[in-house]
Amino acid sequence: MTLHPLPGSRITGGFWARRRAANRAAIPVGHQRLAEAGNLAALRIAAGETTGTAEGASFRDSDVYKWMEAAALEHAYSPDDALAGRLRELTRTIAAAQCEDGYLNSVIQARGEPRYARRWMSHEHYCAGHLFQAAVACARAGETGLLRVATRFADHLAATFGPDGWPELDGHPGAEMGLVELYRHTGETRYLALARHFVGSRGSGRASKPGFDPSHYADPAHYADRVPVREAATVEGHAVRAVYFGAGATDVAVETGDAGLLAALRGQYDAMRTRKQHVTGAVGSRWDGEAFGGADELPPDRAYAETCAAIGAVRWAWRLLLATGDPGYADQIELMLHNAVLPAVSLDGAGYFYVNTLHRRTGARADVQRSAAHGRRPWFHCACCPPNVMRTLAGLPDLLATGSRDGLEIHLYSPSSLRAGDFAVDVSTAYPWEGRIVVTVREAPDREVELALRIPEWASGSTVDGAVAAPGTYARVRRTFRPGKQVVLNLPLHARLLVSASRVDATRGCVAVARGPLVYALEKPDQEPDVVLEDIRLDPAAPLRAEHRAGLLDGVTVLHGSGTVTPGTPQRPFGSPEPPARPTDITLIPYYAWANRGPHPMRVWIPV
Amino acid sequence: MTLHPLPGSRITGGFWARRRAANRAAIPVGHQRLAEAGNLAALRIAAGETTGTAEGASFRDSDVYKWMEAAALEHAYSPDDALAGRLRELTRTIAAAQCEDGYLNSVIQARGEPRYARRWMSHEHYCAGHLFQAAVACARAGETGLLRVATRFADHLAATFGPDGWPELDGHPGAEMGLVELYRHTGETRYLALARHFVGSRGSGRASKPGFDPSHYADPAHYADRVPVREAATVEGHAVRAVYFGAGATDVAVETGDAGLLAALRGQYDAMRTRKQHVTGAVGSRWDGEAFGGADELPPDRAYAETCAAIGAVRWAWRLLLATGDPGYADQIELMLHNAVLPAVSLDGAGYFYVNTLHRRTGARADVQRSAAHGRRPWFHCACCPPNVMRTLAGLPDLLATGSRDGLEIHLYSPSSLRAGDFAVDVSTAYPWEGRIVVTVREAPDREVELALRIPEWASGSTVDGAVAAPGTYARVRRTFRPGKQVVLNLPLHARLLVSASRVDATRGCVAVARGPLVYALEKPDQEPDVVLEDIRLDPAAPLRAEHRAGLLDGVTVLHGSGTVTPGTPQRPFGSPEPPARPTDITLIPYYAWANRGPHPMRVWIPV
Which terms under GO biological process does the entry name (chains A, B) (predicted)? Predict the structure, then answer.
C-alpha cells in the first residue's frame, strides 16, 4: 500500500518545536559559516563577482545547496524576508557562475580544473543532486530562480552521461534523488530516465579511482559500485554513499513501478537494519573509509555513525515507507531522528557532531574535527553535516503524516496540525516524555475517512480509545468523523532493557536502555563523583524510575536505576576473584542530550 | 641489573628452526619482490645506472635496507655467497646514489624533489636509521662497504639537524635506534649526540604537517610528538612511530646513563602493556591513522595490530630487558614473537599480513591489501612489514640469551647452543609444545658462574632440577659447572583461560585460551561444519585436552574442548528466552598458524 506525502503539516509545540526553534536560529549562522569557510567566495569567484583562489574540496557547493534547501523549507513554513533575500542573492550568484552549457561546480571552475577528471572524489553529480533538491524546495517556497539553473545542469548531465553518453559514474550517489525530485516538479521524463540509468549502471566498478590504490579509493565497494543494485544483499562501503544510493534507487523504483528493484532495496535495508545498525539507529561502523563494517561489526566506542549517514537513512526509510506503507519504516524514522540525527546537534543549535560515538571513555583522544573528545563544533572543514541537519529539522513537519482523500496516517507524534484535503486534525501530546496522544478532529468530510495511528513495535499494551492496539501496525479508526471528536492513543512508555543481536561482539554482556522512542545513556555528570563509567554495572532486576526534570538539558525525563561499581581489574585468569563491588545509584539521560555540559565520558551500552 | 647481548647464539632445531628455514628461503624472494616493486629501480636511477621515473613513496629505500639487514644477519649466521653478492651489488648502487654531501633518498633524488620538504611523510631520517642498522649488520657479516655510506649520511644529518641546525623533526622515528647502533659500532659520539637531540626535541609539535588538516596528519600525537618523552604517561598515535621512538629513546637513555629517561620509558611501556596491548601482544587498535586507541580500546575484529608495530615493540622490550634485567620484558618478547610477529607470516614463508586481526567474521570485507579477508599476501604496495619480518626472524638467535663473564641468562627456550666466553651450554627441548627444557653444560670455566633461567609469569608450578621456581623471576643456578652437567627446567604447559582487563569493552564475556607462550584461536575448518563461529560458546568448566598433530599446520599442538552452539538471535529485550543450545566439540589451534588453509573465519576471544 503506497502512502502519499502531505504538505502543509504544522508542528504546534512540544519536543520538536523546541529543537526546530534552535535550528531556525542556527540557519542564518550557517550562512555566516559558509561565508567564513570560503564556500560563498568560491561561487562568487566562479560567477566573476570577485577574484581570488577557491580553496578546499570540489564538493563544497553542496554545503551551500543544502543550506538553501533548509532556508527555503523554513521560509515556506514561516515566511522570512531575510532568508528570502539570502536565497535570491545566492541564486543570482549561482546562476552567474553556471557555465554556458549548464555545467556548474564553482571550485573546479574557479581553479580551472578539468571537469569530471576526479569523479571518485570530485562529487560533481552529487553536488548537482543537492542543487536540484534545493531548487525544488526554493520553488515550493515561491523562489523559482534556482529552478532554471537546476534544469540547465540536469539537461547538461542528461546529454553528457545519459545512456548514450560517457559511461563513468560519479563517486558519490546523490544525483538520483535530486533528479527524481526535479522530474516530479517539472514533469521532465529525461531526468527520471537519467536517474534510472545511474541506478542501473552502478555495480560494475565504474565509480572508483582507476588504477592501483592500496586504500578504499580503488575499491568499488566504497562507492556502492561492487554489485549491481538488484543483486546486492546488503549495504557496504562508505555509509553516506550507500544510503543516499538506496534512497535514490527507491525513488527510481517507485516512479518507474519497478517492483523487483523495490524488493531488492527492501532486502538491503532490512540487512542494514538487522546486522549493521547501532541501537540508536545510527549506521556506519568504521572510521577507515567512513564505512559500513561487516555484519554484526558494531563497536560503540569506534562507531563512526556519521550524521549525514543517519540523515540519508531517514530519507531512504521515508521513501520505503511511502512505497510500502510498512510501519516498520516509520519506526526506523522515529528511532533515527531521535537517536542518530538529533544527537548530532547541541541543544542550543550552535554545535554539531560529524561522528556520533556511542561511547566516550575517560581521556580518549582522536582527531580534533570529528572526535567526541572535543565536543560538538560550530562547523567543519568538510561541512556536509551541519546544513544537512538544518534541512532535515526544517523539513521535519513533512515527515509527521501522510494522507489522501481517504484519510490520514500519523507516523510521528508531536503537537501538530495536520490536514489531508477536507480532513484536518490537531494532535496534542507531551510525547516523547509521556505516552498519551490526543487527536482532535478539526474538520471532517461527510463521508467515512480513516485515521491510521502508528503503534511502534516497542509499544506493547497500547490502546486506542481504550481498545488494545497491536504493536508494529497502524491502528485504524474508520468512520464519519465529526469536528471535535477525539481519538486517544496511549503508548506505554516503560523503560526497556535491550540486548544486542547475539553475534555482535562489541556489546556482549551489556544492555541498552530505551524509553519510548528514546535511547538513554550514562553520562559522567549524573553519576556519583569519581566513578569511572567503565566500572559501573547496571542491575537489570532493579526498577528504572522515570523523573521529568524541566530544568535539566532543556527539559528531559531521566531514568533512575541502581547497580554496582567494581574497581577495574587487569587481564587475569578466568574465574579469579574480583574486587568487592559497592552499590551505586545510576541516572540515565536521553542519549541525544549528551555532551551539552562539556564532552564528558558517556556510554550507551552498559554492562550488567 | 643490566644484561649484555650475546652474539653467536645458534638455534639447533625445533620450533624456531622451522620458521627460520622458511624465512631464509623467503629472503632471496624478497630481493625479487623489491625488484618487481621498483624499489631497486629507484636506487639505480638515483645512482645513474639507469633512467626512468621513481614510483611510489619516498620511504621505500627503507624496505631495501631492512632486506639488507636480514640478508646480512643470515649471511653472518650461515655464510651464503649469493646473499653476499646481492649485498655487495646493492651497496655499490647505494654508494653511487648517495649525494656528494652524504644525503641519500633515491626517490626524492630521482624525482628531483626538495629534501626534507614533506618531513611528516617523507621519512628521510627513518630511512637513514634503517640504513645505519643495515650497515652495522653488514659490517658484522664482514661486508663493510655500506658503513661508509652510513657514516657519510650520519655526518650529513648531524651537520644539518644537530642542536644548532634545523629544528624540524622527521615524521617517523627510527633514526634514533640506527644512530645509536652506528655509535656503538664506530664509537663516534656525534651520532649518539644527534640521537639524544632527536629524542629530546620530540614533543613540541615539530614533526607534524604544518597548517590545517582535519585528519591525523596535523596532529602531533600521530608522530609521538605531542608531549616530551619525559612527560609522556603512555604511548599514542601511529603505533609504529610510537614504539620505534620508545626503542630509540631507550637506546639513548642506556648509552647516556639517563635514569630519569629510562624510568619514563618504563612507565610508558607499562601503560602500553596494561591498557593498550591485545592478548596476543599486538599493539595498535585503530585502522584510522594506524594508531593506538585510547586505554582499553582493544577491538579484536578491528585490531590494526600492524606487523611492524609488534616488531618495534619487541625491539623496545629487548632494550628494556637489557637495561633492567626485568624478566617481564622477556615474557613480553616471547609473547609478541609467538603471537604478534609470527602470525604475520605464512608457514611457507611466502605470504604476509600487514594487519593482524584477532577476529575474522564470515564474509567480512575490507581493503584488499591489508584485510585478513584476502589472506596473507606475497608483498605490499607499502612493503614495510615483509622485510621487517625477515630481519626479525634472521636476528632471532640474538634474542635467546644474554651473558657475561659471570654466566648466562636464557630468555627464550629453543634447541640451541649458547656461549658466554668460556661457559657454553646446549639446550634441548620440544618447547613450546612441551615444557621440559634440558640445559647441558658443554664447556665451563673452573670458577663459579651462574645459569639464569627465565620462569614465565604464567608458569606456576615450574621446577628447576625438581625445586620449585617462582614465576616471573629468573631461576638462578650458581656453581662451578662441569661439562656434561644437566640442569632440567620444567614449565607446566596447561591450557589457561584468560579474561580481559575489566574496562575493556570489546571482549567482555569472552575468554582467550593460551598454553605456554602460545595464544590459541578457533578457526572454522576445525569446528563442526555449518557452525557460525559467533554462535559458539566455550564451556570454561570443561577440560581442554592437548593433542600434538605432526601432520597439521607444519606440526602443532591443538586443544580440544567443548561448548555449545546457540543459533544467532536479533536485538531483543533483555531476559527474553534464547533458542536452545546444542553441545559441540571445539578445537583450537595456535593463533600464529591461522589462515594457512585459506582465509577462514577465526576468533581469538571466545564467548563463554
Answer: carbohydrate metabolic process
**Helix, coil or strand: residue B405:** coil
Q: What are the cell numbers at A303?
A: 562507531
Closest-CA distance of chain B to residue A274, Å:
7
Q: Quick check: B501 and A569 CB within 8 A?
A: yes
Number of Cβ atoms within 10 Å of the Cβ of B166:
11
In whole angstroms, give the CA distance from residue B340 to residue B320: 19
Which residues from B are below 8 Å from A365, CB to CB? 221, 236, 294
The reply to whether ipTM tops 0.95 is: no
Peptide bond into B387 cis (omega under 30): no
Same domain, B421 and B546: no
pLDDT (tens digit per residue) in B29-79: 999 999 999 999 999 999 999 999 998 899 999 999 999 999 999 999 999
Within this chain, do residues A77 and A190 fall inside the same structural domain, yes or no? Answer: yes
Q: In what order do the strands lie in the sheet with B423-429?
A: B10-11, B416-420, B423-429, B436-443, B486-490, B463-464, B467-468
Cβ-defined contact of B573 to A497 (cutoff 8 Å): yes
Q: Which of A483, A484, A402 is nearest to A444 (CA)?
A: A483
- Report how far residue B29's alpha carbon sits from residue B23's, in angstroms, rounded to the nearest whole number: 10
Q: What CA–CA distance (Å, rounded) separates B322 from A240?
A: 51
Contact B496 A607 (CB under 8 A): no
Contacts A236 to B, Cβ<8 Å: 365
Euclidean distance between CA atoms A305 and A298, whole angstroms: 10
Same domain assignment for residues A584 and A528: yes
Whether A208 and A171 have beta carbons less than 8 Å apart is answered as: yes
**Residue segments in chain B with a per-residue pLDDT below the cut of 70:** 363-369
Contacts of A287 in chain B (CB under 8 A): 286-288
pLDDT of residue B526: 97
CB contact under 8 A, A572 and B509: no
CB B511 to CB A574 under 8 A? yes
Residues of chain A with pLDDT under 50: none
Q: Which three cell numbers stand for residue B511?
A: 575468554
CB within 8 A of B114, min separation 6: which ones? B108
What pLDDT was estimated at residue A187? 98
Half-sphere exposure of B386 (CA within 13 A, CB side): 31
Q: Is residue A4 part of a domain?
A: no
A2 in any annotated domain: no
Element at A75 (helix H, strand E): helix A61-77
d(CA A221, CA B535): 27
Residue A5 in domain: no
Nearest to A412 by CA among A491, A514, A499, A348: A491
* Nearest residue in B to A220, CA atom: B367
CATH number of the domain encompassing residue B274:
1.50.10.10
The structural domain count of chain A equals 3
A425 and A392 in one domain?
A: no
Pairwise CA distance, residues A409 & A323, whole Å: 14
Contact A296 B367 (CB under 8 A): no
Cβ separation B572–A498 shorter than 8 A: yes
User: Cα–Cα distances in Å, from A360 out to A343, A364, B500, B505?
Assistant: 14, 7, 19, 12
Smallest Cβ–Cβ distance between B568 and the set A297, A300, A501 belongs to A501
> Do A574 and B608 count as a contact with CB atoms less than 8 A apart?
yes
* CATH code for the domain of A426: 2.60.40
Q: Are residues B478 and B530 in the same domain?
A: no
Amino acid at residue number B172 = H
Residues B224 and B190 in one domain: yes
Distance from C-alpha of A396 to C-alpha of A22, rounded to nearest angstrom: 13
Domain that holds residue B391: 10-359+366-399
Distance from CA of B587 to the nearest CA of A (A): 19
Q: Would you give the distance in Å from CA B172 to the centre of its chain? A: 17
Cell triple for B408: 648466562
User: B272 lies in a domain?
Assistant: yes
